[in-house]
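#onboarding

Welcome to the new folks! Below is a worked example of what a typical request in this channel looks like: someone posts a single protein sequence, and someone else replies with the predicted structure as tokens. Don't worry about understanding the tokens yet, we'll cover that in week two.

Example request:
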Amino acid sequence: MDMIKDVLNEIGIPNEDGFFAKDLDAAQYLSEGWPERVYAKFKGVYPESLLLFYINHLGWELGKWTELYRPAVGVSQ
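Example response:
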């Protein structure tokens, strides 16, 4: 739950202990480059696989993504 709260707070999504309203219009919070910023900030803090799973979960659920986010390989972030 700590990672979820940290990520939502970093993005600015209103939440109560990691839970946000299911009818939330998140477009205003999911600004250009948010996955890269979240990944760069929390990569060494939380397990990478879990962090990527949650970034993609948010992108799918709130951002209506149709493709997975994969960080660039070999690029320092």
